[in-house]
Fold this sequence. Notes:
Layout: E1 4-9, H1 14-17, H2 31-46, E2 53-56, H3 60-72, E3 80-82, H4 99-106, H5 108-116, H6 128-148, E4 152-157, H7 159-169, H8 174-178, E5 188-192, E6 198-203
Parallel strand pairs: 1-4, 2-3, 2-4
Antiparallel strand pairs: 1-5, 5-6
Amino acid sequence: MSGTLVLVRHGQSEWNLKNLFTGWRDPDLTELGIKEAETGGQALADAGLKFDIAFTSVLKRAQDTLRIVLDKVEQPELETIRDEALNERDYGDLAGLNKDDARKKWGEEQVHIWRRSYDVPPPGGESLRDTGARVWPYYMTEILPRVLRGETVLVAAHGNSLRALVMVLDRLSKEEILKLNLATGVPMVYKLNPDSTVASKEVLGDMSGAH
């Protein structure tokens, strides 16, 4: 018996729009972000997916995306578990700064390293590896067992917390995961084998990533 795992990155937030480092700060979705979540939810509804449980972070941009998606699939009362293990990567001292201002302060190369290296964290923040260190155990203990029981599980979270999951699911190297950018509001539907490996992956609404 194989279950289904659906990952959705939240829609555009106000700070995405303003080119600010967000991390654990808590801005709202933009109008575009709301539309992205609606489009993603409609794609799931069109695919006929129904969920047994949902997981999200403690940040409202992910929670609001989840709420919009669940409305579209007509499951607004679905049991939902919120946990900071699924929060976005913590950008530490960069949070709230405009990315261009950060480059002026620390230099283009240093900011690029913080943003795109696997294991170099910004001051007071987390690297992608640090983010994975809290995402992976949570996935293994809380999310994966439900999928392996044959449930259909929805996770609405963030670019970096989901990249950490995709790294494991798609068996990507440290170099490969750094090149991966997840589209906002676009669901990724994984069918898992009983041994937790991926049987199939479909990206709804963005066929360039499907296989």
